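Ticket 4471: requesting a sanity check on a complex prediction with pyridoxal-5'-phosphate. Repro inputs:
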Amino acid sequence: MTFNDVLDDIKVYEAGKPIELVVREYGIDEKDIVKLASNENPYGSSPRAVEAVKRDAYKMFMYPDDSMYELKSGLQKKFGVKRENIIIGAGSDQVLEFACRAKLKNGSKVLMTKITFAMYEIYAKQMGAGIIKSSTYRHDFDELLKLYKKENPDIIFVCTPNNPTGDAVDRAILFDFLQEIDEDTLVIVDGAYMEYAAFKDESKNIEPKELIEKFPNALYLGTFSKAYGLGGMRVGYGVAGEEIIKALYKMRPPFNITILSLIAAIESLKDKSFVDESVRKNFEQMQRYIDYALKRKIEYIPSYTNFITFIFDEERNSKKISQKLLEKGVIVRDLTGYSLNAIRITIGTPEQNDRLFYALDEVL
Ligand SMILES: *Cc1c(COP(=O)(O)O)cnc(C)c1O
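Returned structure tokens:
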């Protein structure tokens, strides 16, 4: 069968390996498996959200409120923007998809940093767009500006903190860059891990309100999947000027998130202390990874997120290391597919991190 030509050049997104697979393939007991591969919140979800979902489980026969009134009110309050500035997606991934479909056509171009979130490329290619990448894995805005002027892309993706490297961009440097960008170029600022960066270093914090007031061509993306601990519920959002949000709404199917996802997200927004505590504990545990890397002379990328990237020298192979960890029931993310000899490890609970250090010591 023939398909749309654009598919020829698309690689299927490789998600973190699920616990169930390790149970099946290696016969390891589920309770002995430590998954540090998908940047989920190791402390789970807000207990308030879990309670609310249990209480309202009987509502699953109903369609959700398609205006998403209450969730938008919560986000409005959190960010100080108008309801008209918000769109909700099944994960921020879905908002990304809306944006690519709304802005790109065959022959369009998009610009991004060399090593960044794989879905940008996939959604752009689905629309037949050409991909322009910088030459370094850190956001180098001098180079990005040169490429912008040369290639005139329709979308620029900025992921901060960046996945899978964990580094973050200074707000001032990003804003200087955005000053140079034409109003017809959509700039997508993906803040999936912004709660972590904001805690660690105020100069990396990007407030959607300030961003969209200064730059009418910017679209901010946020998610409940990471610090909020709702990865399984699939809720994300976009914040932008009304003109952009109206365009994205034309791409949205009705009832695009479930009624229980809505309830979980609404309750999670009310439980600020759960998120704050998760983020605080994350950096407490992160320090152990830094100490570990220093002691074992492993190169790491200073991280503003809930994961850390260890880069290995030539004598060690990240693919083999992650495979051996897997056989010990510890799931991490190998970055060979991103052309890095590195592994990305989600910062877990103290006990999970103990397990990782023990297993990694054995493997190395
Ligand atoms: C996890 C992640 C997302 C989106 O996740 P959703 O679960 O779809 O909200 C977006 N961008 C980056 C960089 C991520 O790591």
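Notes from triage: The two ends are 47 Å apart (CA to CA). Leaving this open until the requester confirms.
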